[in-house]
Amino acid sequence: YSFCTLLFMFSAIEFTLLLISTISADPPCETRLEVDTNTANSMSSTKIELVYFNIHARGELTRLCFAAAGRLSELKDTRLPLFMDSSAAAMEWSVEHAPKTPFGYVPYLNVAEGTKSFQVSGDGAVEMFAARHCNLLGDSPLDAAVCNTISAKAVGLLGPGLTRAGLYQDWEQILNASTPRGPIGEVLNGLEKYVNRLHGKATSDPAYRDTGSYANSNGNGSSSHFYVLGDKISLADLAIYNSVDECIRGPRSTEFFERVDKLLRREYPTLLRVYDQVTKDLAGYLTTRNVQRPLDQP
Length: 298
Fold this sequence. Notes:
With 298 residues, the protein is of the alpha+beta class. It is built from 13 helices and 4 strands. Helix 3 packs parallel to helix 5 and helix 10 (235-249) crosses helix 12 (269-281).
């Protein structure tokens, strides 16, 4: 055979072998579907336990995330006796519970995912993990950044001072702190302006007037629903609700400080609109959330 003939025969054989191997290979789409199925199974097998005191405050935001997503039954809610309630509770916290925490404080999450287990702790990390798990961070990285910004500020208000004032019904302390120049009011005032700018509502800065990224039918009062991200509930709404509720109703929502409520509605109407919206949306959960669960009950 000539060199050209041999080259042609070799090429033909090589092409045939390639065709056979291609036909016998697993279809690419089946492989991709298998990966997607495994990922979905991994997500569905995640087990989360919240460890916090038997009050609302900083731990409640995680509970609200699961309630808003309709997945509260998936959360193991371990409620510890509040150390402020009694000397016995304080001793129990110091001796039994504090040593189990990652960094000496609560809330924290115990997370089991397949064969792996780990803890999530710290302001910001806990609620962002819960919100991501419950798909409450909006539809884009920008939405998630807005949620993170608002929740970080709102959660920062929920310290021992506010908890103690609520427990002892010291509404005058809360009232004074909630004025625009008070330590709570300064944060609420900043959040009020921030949400207004997102919705393009008029502020003292003309540059933000009617230019908000989330300005839509929900932002101009023509809709019966109002959310920070415009069209659906998110971590941002829940964080605002949780901090406002702590000021008005105390750390277990068993009080009603009428003068605080009036002050907040007068000074921070946009935040209170969010508060009222979440109150309506989660009415079923909010009427039963104070039921004490045994510490070992999922």
